[in-house]
Fold:
Amino acid sequence: MAAEAVVEVAEEPVVRQAGQLLREAREARGLSVFEVAQSLKFGVRQIEALEADNYGALPPGATFLRGFVRGYAKLLKLDPVPLLELLDGRAPSVMPEVRAPQNMGVAATPVVAGRRSSSPLLIGAAVIAIVAAGLAAWHFTSSPPPTGPAKSADQPVVAAAPNGDTETVRPPDIRVEQTPVAGGVAQPANMPLPPDQKQLVFAFQDKSWVEVRDASQRIIFSGESQPGTRQAVAGKPPFQLVVGNAAKVELQYEDRLIDLKPHIRAEVARLTVE
Structure:
C-alpha cells in the first residue's frame, strides 16, 4: 500500500495594521477611548475609526492621517516610524478634481445687469481722489504758519439755556494789536474803549509768552510774541498776568509803567494789575 504524502502548507503571517497596534497599546495601558479622545482633542468616533483601520471614516488627506497616528503614538510612548510605514499603501489617496476650462477664448468685458462693468469708472474715480488728496496735502504743507498771536473769534456762540432754549453768548470784548516797536514802550493804540475797560500794552525785546485774564477769570489773550513787537490788550480789570521771559518785557498800564522785576520767579512774572 502506497504511503500517503503529507504536504504542509505554511500559513502567511498576519500583518497587523497601525490602528490595531494602537488599540492594543491603549488597552495595555488601561486607557479608555474617551480618555484618549480628551488628550488628543479628537472625537471618540475618530479614535474608534482609526483603531479599526477604517480610514474612509476619517477626514481625507494623508497629512491628517499621519499626524493623527503620530500624535496617538506619542501619547502612548510608541515609536511612530513603524506605524507610519504601515500606513503606506493603506490610506486612501484623494485625487484633486481637475476640470478643463469651459471657455478658452478671449476674455470679454464682464456684464452686470445688462450693462458693462464699471471698472474704468471706478479706476477714474480712484485717480481723481488720489490727485485731490495730493493737492490738499500740498496746500496744507506749503501754507506758511501764522506768526501773529492767537485771537479770539468774533462770532457769537450758541449755548443751551437751563430751560432747554438756546441763547447767544458773545465772547468778551478783546482788542489785541501787534506792531513793531522801534525802542522803549510804544504808545497805547488809539482805540476807543468802553468806560469799564482798561488797556495793557506789552513791548517785547525778546521772544516771550503772555497770558492775560480779566475780572471774570477768562483768558482774554494768550500767545507768543516775537522780539521788536508789542501787544495791546483791553478788558475789564483787575487783570491777572503771566509773562514769560519777563526781564525782556516792558508793560504799560494806561499812562504808567509797571515794573515786572519784583514779580519774576524763574524768568516768569505773575502779578495782578488793577
The first helix runs from residue 18 to 28. The first strand starts at residue 111 and ends at 112. Residues 93-98, 106-114, 150-154, 181-187 have pLDDT under 50 and may be disordered. DSSP finds six helices and 14 strands in the chain.
